[in-house]
Design goal:
- This protein has about 425 residues and is mainly α.
- The protein contains 18 helices and 4 strands.
- The chain has a two-stranded antiparallel sheet with strand order 1-2. A two-stranded antiparallel ribbon has the order 3-4.
- The chain is elongated.
Length: about 425
C-alpha cells in the first residue's frame, strides 16, 4: 500500500474552464508541453549574464518530463548541436534580477486567474524540504535546488499532483530563461503567500540548479500526514532540516491555504460545502473556510474543532497536544501579527535550505531592501595565513580568482623567492647610492 504523506499545503487542480487539467503522474510526462513549445523551451535554456555582454550556452540534462514523446528526438538533437557553442565573458549571477521582477508580476497575474496559491506554496516547500543538514556536499544534501522539476522526484508519493504546478510555471521558465528553476519555485511560493494576504517574506535569490535527475534526493525526506507518533515524526523531519519547534508550528500554519484531495494524499473528503464549487476544480477538504486567504484561522479552527467539514490531520491535532508545540499554536491562534512575523522568518529560512547561491551572499529584488554588502577583504588575514578568519563566502571568491594560479584561500600562493631577492638587491642598491651621495 502506498504510504500516505503530508502535503504542505495541499493541493490544487485547475478550473474546468481552463486548458489545464489534472494529470496522473503515470501519463503526465508525455503531455506537459506541445512539441514546438518544448523545443523552444529547450533551445532557450542558458546561463544568463545580466551584467555583461556574454552569454553561455549549454546543454543541461533535461528530464523527458519536459520533452513530449513526439518531437523529443528533434529537441534532443537541437540541444546537442548547441552544447559546444558558447562565447566567453565575465562571471555572472545564476538568475537575472530584472527577469525575476518581471516573473513575479506574471505570477501575480497567474494567481488571479488560476487560484493556484496553495499548490505554488507547496511546490516551493517540497523542493526545499528535502534538505539534510547532516550532509555537507551539494547537491547531495537536498534543498532548494530545482530538482523537483525532474520526473523521478515528481513521482515521490509526497509530490502527487505537483506536476500541475510545473505545468503552470513552465511557460514562465520559457519566457524568463535567465531565471533558475530553484529561484522560480521559491519566488512563486513566496508570492503566493503574499498575494493571499499573508506577510511579506524577506526572500533572497541566486539559487543554482542541479543539472540532472541523478542529483535528485531519495524518496522519504518529506513529512508523513499520519505517523504513529506525530510529534516525534515532525521533529525528526524538521530537525533534520535544521528547523526548531517554533518554526514547525509557524510553517504548519500555511495549511490555512489549500485542500486535501483523497485521490492524491489519501486524506480528506471528496468534497465539502466549502469546496464543492471551487474556485478551480471542485472538491477536496480544506482546513479552513476561506482556504485561499492566508491568516491565522488554521490555528483557531483546529483549537475549536467545531466544524466537521474542516480537515484536521494527526499532524495538525498534535500542535495543540504536544506541550512545546502548544505554546506556539495558542499564541498564533490569539495573535495573527505574531504568526505572520514568525511565519515570514520561517518561510524565508526554509526557502534557503541547502541552496547554493551565485553570488554566494544572494541578492534581493525588493525595492528599498538593502542589498547584502560585499565582504571587505582584509589582506592581513590572507597574507599572514589567517585563513580561518575569512568567511566561507570570501574564501569562495578568492578561490575563484586564484585557483587558476595554483592557489586557494586554504593554500596561499607560494612566494616567488627569486622576485623577492631581486627586490631586496634593488633596495640595497638604492640605499648604497643614497649613502654614497
Amino acid at each position: 500500500m502506498a504510504q500516505r504523506l503530508i502535503q504542505f499545503p495541499l493541493t490544487y487542480s485547475s478550473s474546468p474552464h481552463s486548458t489545464m487539467t489534472s494529470l496522473t503522474l503515470g501519463s503526465a510526462a508525455s503531455r506537459l508541453l506541445p512539441s514546438a513549445a518544448a523545443a523552444n523551451s529547450a533551445a532557450k535554456l542558458s546561463l544568463y549574464c545580466p551584467h555583461s555582454v556574454k552569454l553561455f550556452r549549454s546543454s543541461p540534462l533535461i528530464s523527458h518530463l519536459f520533452l513530449p514523446q513526439k518531437g523529443a528526438a528533434a529537441a534532443s538533437r537541437l540541444l546537442r548541436s548547441r552544447s559546444s557553442s558558447y562565447s566567453t565573458v565575465t562571471k555572472c549571477f545564476a538568475s537575472d534580477p530584472e527577469q525575476l521582477k518581471s516573473a513575479r508580476e506574471d505570477i501575480k497575474e497567474l494567481l488571479k486567474t488560476k487560484f493556484c496559491h496553495p499548490i505554488l506554496v507547496r511546490l516551493g516547500w517540497h523542493d526545499a524540504g528535502t534538505y539534510n543538514k547532516n550532509i555537507e556536499d551539494w547537491p547531495q544534501r537536498g534543498g532548494a535546488n530545482g530538482s523537483l522539476r525532474f520526473e523521478i522526484e515528481l513521482k515521490h508519493a509526497a509530490n502527487a499532483g505537483l506536476v500541475n504546478a510545473l505545468q503552470l510555471l513552465l511557460p514562465l521558465k520559457d519566457k524568463y530563461s535567465g531565471v533558475t528553476y530553484a529561484d522560480l519555485f521559491q519566488l512563486a511560493s513566496a508570492t503566493a503567500v503574499e498575494e493571499a494576504g499573508g506577510p511579506k517574506i524577506p526572500m533572497k535569490y541566486g539559487r543554482v540548479d542541479v543539472s540532472g535527475p541523478e542529483q535528485c534526493p531519495e524518496e522519504g525526506r518529506l513529512p508523513d500526514a499520519g505517523p504513529p507518533s506525530p510529534a516525534a515524526h515532525l521533529r525528526d523531519v524538521f530537525y533534520r532540516m535544521g528547523l526548531n519547534d517554533k518554526e514547525i508550528v509557524a510553517l504548519s500554519g500555511a495549511h490555512t491555504l489549500g485542500r486535501s484531495r483523497p485521490e492524491r494524499s489519501g486524506w480528506g473528503m471528496p468534497e465539502t460545502k466549502y469546496t464543492k464549487d471551487g474556485p478551480g476544480a471542485p472538491g477536496g477538504q480544506s482546513w479552513t473556510v476561506q482556504w485561499l486567504k492566508f491568516d491565522n484561522s488554521y490555528f483557531k479552527d483546529i483549537k475549536e474543532r467545531r466544524d466537521a467539514e474542516l480537515l484536521v490531520l494527526p499532524t495538525d491535532a498534535v500542535l495543540f497536544e504536544d506541550p512545546a508545540f502548544k505554546e506556539y499554536a495558542e499564541k498564533y491562534a490569539a495573535d495573527q501579527e505574531a504568526f505572520f512575523k514568525d511565519y515570514a522568518e520561517a518561510h524565508a529560512k526554509l526557502s534557503n535550505l541547502g541552496a547554493k547561491f551565485d553570488p554566494p551572499e544572494g541578492f534581493s529584488i525588493d525595492e528599498g531592501t538593502s542589498q547584502p554588502q560585499p565582504e571587505k577583504f582584509v589582506a592581513a588575514n590572507y597574507s599572514t595565513g589567517k585563513v580561518s578568519e575569512l568567511s566561507e563566502a570570501m574564501k569562495q571568491k578568492i578561490r575563484a580568482e586564484y585557483e587558476g594560479l595554483g592557489g586557494s584561500p586554504d593554500k596561499p600562493l607560494p612566494s616567488n623567492y627569486f622576485l623577492n631577492i631581486m627586490i631586496v638587491i634593488g633596495v640595497l642598491a638604492i640605499l648604497t647610492s643614497l649613502l654614497g651621495n
